[in-house]
Amino acid sequence: IQNKAVLQERFELPAGEDLFVMGIVTRMVPQKGIDLLQPIIRALLNDLPIQLVAVGEGETGIMDFLLNLKKDLPHKAAVKFEYNQELPHLIYAGADVVLIPSRFEPSGLTQMEAMGYGCIPIVRKTGGLSDTVEDCDPEAARGTGFVFEKIEPLSLMTAIVRAYESFRHKNSWRELQLRA
After folding, report:
1. Cβ neighbours of residue 161 under 8 Å, at least 6 residues apart?
2. Half-sphere exposure of 137 (CA within 13 A, CB side)
């Protein structure tokens, strides 16, 4: 709870432990799938108690999209286009989930670092992501994250909503964090 408050303060977002904070720590390039957020993220941020924090650098189009999101929804979205050693760890420690919707990912360290902090990965089933993240099944008390297969915004949105709904059940969410 304290880590989330520090993250929200650092990114100039309203604090609240019941807000679902999604983090992005990546290069802002098409391979990383961040563009899949474009058609869906405004609806998610407007309709649910969700915040988005993003760190990274990359292609202008993706960075402009995130800057405009921050400008239009300053209490819901925040970005820092810089890289330093502290920011990824701050996100992993304070966010509830980390988004990794990569088109391909031969290995991937982000999901493993995040899980070490109890930050649950939302990943596309590809390469090293599918090798290291097991899809959450709350009824069977299994899984370490949320996995989707198709490279399309609706599949990513479904995974985000599944994670948000799981987050609302604090006891099973804590069990998921411990498994991760």
Report:
1. 44
2. 4
CA 12 to chain centre: 18
Cβ–Cβ under 8 Å, residues 80 and 55: yes
d(CA 176, CA 158): 18
Two tokens, residue 156: 């990513």
Is beta strand 146-148 parallel, antiparallel or unpaired with respect to 20-25? Answer: unpaired
pLDDT, tens digit, 9 for 90 and up, residues 17-36: 999 999 999 999 999 999 99
Instruction: Tell me the residue length of the chain.
Output: 180
| Sheet arrangement for strand 146-148 | 77-80, 50-55, 20-25, 97-100, 120-124, 146-148
Could you read off the pLDDT of 79-94 as tens digits, one per residue?
A: 999 878 899 999 999 9
Look up the pTM and report it.
Answer: 0.96
Fill in the amino acid letter for 105.
E
